[in-house]
Structure formats: C-alpha cells, structure tokens
Amino acid sequence: MTKRRKYSPEFKREAVLLAQQPDASCRQIALDIGINPNLLSRWKREAEQSKDKAFKGSGSPRDEEMARLKRELAKVKKERDFLREAATFFAKEGF
C-alpha cells in the first residue's frame, strides 16, 4: 500500500492558479507537476466554491509550529548522530 501524500496549501494554490490560466489544460498541468488530474480538478472546484477558505488547513498555528519544531529537532538529532559516528571513526583510525 502506498503512503498518502500531503500537499501544502501554497502548492495547491499555485497549481490552481496554473490551471486557471487561459489555454491551460488541467490534465497537462497536473501531469507536469506530478499529480493526478482528478486531484487538480478537485482542488480547482474547492477553490472556486470557497475563495477565502480554500486550503487553509485544519490545524492551529500552534500545531503548525509544534510540527515545524519536531521536524527541526529530528534533523538536528540526525546531524548530531552523524557527527558522533564520524568522531568515533576518526578516533579509531588515529586521524
């Protein structure tokens, strides 16, 4: 089973703007940016139905900040572990 991809609200807005251009094929734009044409059509409908509320997200700003901080922490931990392993390697090799 494949993992469901999540797209940022900015990505959705940009895709819809591309699809709304004159002489733009919704299908071709979707294929160009790597998404299913049906998905882009749905985003376009959602944007037309509720101009102000489209792609706002469901989380609060605090939840978004928490998610960002967790991603940053995970990145810093990976960097720390890499440096720790490198230091151990160099200590064993006598560099």
How do the helices and strands follow one another from N- to C-terminus?
A: HHHH
* Sheet/helix structural class: mainly alpha
Q: Helix tally?
A: 4
Count of distinct strands:
0
Report the mean per-residue pLDDT as an integer.
Answer: 84
Shape field: elongated
Low-confidence stretches: none
Task: Give the C-alpha Rg.
Answer: 21 Å
What distance lies between the first and last C-alpha atoms, to the nearest angstrom?
47 Å
Q: Main β-sheet: number of strands, strand sense, barrel status? A: none
Helical residues, percent: 55-70%
Strand content: under 5%
Describe the structure.
This protein has 95 residues and is an all-alpha fold. It is built from four helices and no strands. It has helices spanning 9-19, 26-33, 37-49, 61-93. The longest helix is centred in the last third of the chain and has 33 residues, at 61-93.
